[in-house]
Write a structure and sequence with these properties.
It is globular and about 60 Å long. Helix 3 packs across helix 6, helix 11 packs antiparallel against helix 14 and helix 13 runs antiparallel to helix 14. The protein has one domain: MFS general substrate transporter like domains (Growth Hormone, Chain: A). The chain contains 14 helices and no strands. The protein starts with 22 loop residues before the first helix and ends with a helix. The protein is an all-alpha fold.
C-alpha cells in the first residue's frame, strides 16, 4: 500500500490567510512543473527520428516495409515496458522510476549516435520505447499527486483539472515538439543525423538533474512487495469505465499512428517535397493541436468533452483521407490539426476517467494499463498500412483504415459515454 507524503499545514495558512504559502506547498508546486518538463522533453526525444527517416532511407536504401519495422519495434518496446515495469512506481517510487526512464532514453540516444545502420535504428527505437513505457504512467501519476499535495498545503480541497491537462499536454505536446525540433535542425543546421540527438540528450540531462529537486509522493513499503507483471487493480463497479477508456485510448493513438506513418511518405512521395522542416511542422501541428485542445478544454465537463473531441476528430480524419485522394497539402494539414485536437480532447477524457476510478495505491498501475492499450493502438495503423501498401494504393489503404478506425471509435466512445 502506498500513500502520499504527509503534509503539515499551519493554521495561519488556511484559505484566506495572508503571507507566503507553506514551504512544502511551494516544493510540490515547483516539482510539478519540473516533472512536466521532464515528461515533455523525454517524450519529445522519442519522436525526434520522425522527420529524419527520409535521410536514413536515402542513405541506406531501405523501403517502406523496413520503415514499418522501425515503427513497430518502438511500439513493442513501449508495450513490453508497460506490461513488465510500467506499474513499479506504485511501490518503487515515482522519482526513481522517472530517473530510470530518462536514463534509458539517454542510452537510446547514444545508440542513435554511434550505431546509425538499420540494425542500430531497430535497437535504438526499441530501447526508446522501453523508456516511454517506464515514463508515461509514472509521470502522469506523479503530476497528479504533486498537484494534490500542493493544493492541500494551501488548504484547498476538491478536484482540479490542471494536473490532467498538464500531464496529457506534456505527453502529446512533447511528441509534437520532437519532430519540430529535429526537422528544423535537419533543415537549417549541420550534421542532421547527429545534431538533433545531441540537443535532445542535453535537454534530458537537464531533466534528470531537475528531478533531484522534486519531492517523492510514494512511501516505499517495507518489506518490498514481490515482483509481478502488470495487472490492473480497479474496483469491480468501475471496470466498465476503465475498459471503455482503454478502448478509446487505443483508437485515439491509432489516429496519431496513422498520421505519423502517413505524413512523411505523403510529403516525400506524393507531393515530392523532401523538406525536413515541413515534415517536422506537419507532425507538430497534429500533436501540438492535441496539447492545445487539452489546455483550452481543461474545465469542460467529461461528457461534453467527449462529444467535442469525437466530433472534431472524425471531421479531421475525413479531411486527411480526402487530402490523400486529391493530393492536397493544405487539406492534409487542416485535417491533421483537427484530428489532433479532437484526439487530444478525447484522450484527456480517458486519462481523467482512469484517474477517477483507480485506487490511490494503484494509480500508476491503472494508468500503465491505459497507456498499454493506447500504444498497442499506436502500432496497428503503422504496421497495417506498411503491409497494406504492398498490395494496395496508399489512398485505398487509407480509406479502409479510416473506416475501420471510425467504426472502432464509435463502439469504444459509446461505452465510455455510458459509463462516465
Amino acid at each position: 500500500m502506498t500513500s502520499a507524503t504527509p503534509i503539515r499545514v499551519q493554521a495561519s495558512r488556511r484559505p484566506g490567510a495572508t503571507g507566503r504559502p507553506p514551504v512544502a506547498g511551494r516544493r510540490h508546486r515547483a516539482g510539478f512543473w519540473l516533472v512536466a518538463y521532464a515528461f515533455a522533453v523525454t517524450m519529445a526525444f522519442s519522436a525526434v527520428p520522425t522527420p529524419l527517416y527520409v535521410l536514413y532511407q536515402a542513405r541506406d536504401g531501405f523501403g517502406a516495409f523496413t520503415l514499418t519495422l522501425i515503427f513497430a519495434v518502438y511500439a513493442v518496446g513501449v508495450s513490453l515496458s508497460l506490461l513488465l515495469a510500467g506499474h513499479l512506481s506504485d511501490w518503487a517510487g515515482r522519482r526513481r522510476m522517472l530517473a530510470a526512464a530518462i536514463a534509458v532514453n539517454l542510452a537510446s540516444g547514444v545508440l542513435f549516435l554511434t550505431w546509425p545502420s538499420v540494425p542500430g535504428l531497430l535497437v535504438a527505437r526499441f530501447v526508446s520505447g522501453v523508456s516511454i513505457g517506464l515514463l508515461t504512467a509514472t509521470a502522469t501519476a506523479h503530476l497528479t499527486e504533486l498537484h494534490r499535495a500542493g493544493r492541500r498545503a494551501r488548504g484547498r480541497v476538491g478536484p482540479s483539472e490542471q494536473a490532467s491537462a498538464v500531464s496529457t499536454a506534456a505527453n502529446l505536446g512533447g511528441i509534437g515538439l520532437g519532430p519540430l525540433l529535429a526537422g528544423l535542425l535537419a533543415q537549417y543546421g549541420p550534421d542532421p543525423l547527429h545534431l538533433s540527438y545531441l540537443v535532445g540528450e542535453g535537454l534530458m540531462v537537464a531533466a534528470l538533474l531537475a528531478l533531484m529537486l522534486v519531492p517523492e509522493t510514494v512511501t516505499r513499503p517495507d518489506p518490498r512487495p514481490a515482483y509481478r507483471p502488470q495487472r490492473v487493480s480497479v474496483p469491480p463497479a468501475s471496470r466498465p469505465a476503465f475498459w471503455a477508456a482503454g478502448g478509446t485510448g487505443a483508437v485515439v493513438f491509432s489516429v496519431f499512428g496513422l498520421f505519423t506513418s502517413l505524413a512523411p511518405s505523403f510529403l516525400a512521395g506524393t507531393l515530392h517535397d523532401r523538406s525536413h522542416a515541413l515534415a517536422g511542422v506537419a507532425a507538430f501541428a497534429v500533436f501540438g493541436a492535441a496539447a492545445l485542445s487539452q489546455i483550452m478544454l481543461a474545465r469542460v465537463p467529461l461528457l461534453r468533452l467527449l462529444v467535442i473531441g469525437i466530433t472534431v476528430l472524425v471531421t479531421g480524419l475525413a479531411l486527411v483521407t480526402v487530402a490523400v485522394w486529391v493530393a492536397s497539402l493544405a487539406l492534409l494539414l487542416i485535417g491533421g490539426v483537427l484530428a489532433g485536437a479532437g484526439a487530444g480532447a478525447t484522450f484527456k477524457a480517458t486519462v481523467a476517467t482512469v484517474i477517477a476510478v483507480a485506487p490511490d495505491g494503484a494509480r500508476g498501475e491503472a494508468l500503465a494499463g491505459l497507456f498499454l492499450a493506447a500504444y498497442l493502438g499506436l502500432a496497428v495503423p503503422v504496421i497495417g498500412l506498411g503491409v497494406a501498401t504492398q498490395y494496395l494504393s496508399a489512398p485505398v489503404a487509407l480509406l479502409i483504415f479510416a473506416a475501420a478506425l471510425l467504426a472502432a471509435l464509435a463502439t469504444a466512445t459509446r461505452r465510455l459515454y455510458r459509463s462516465a
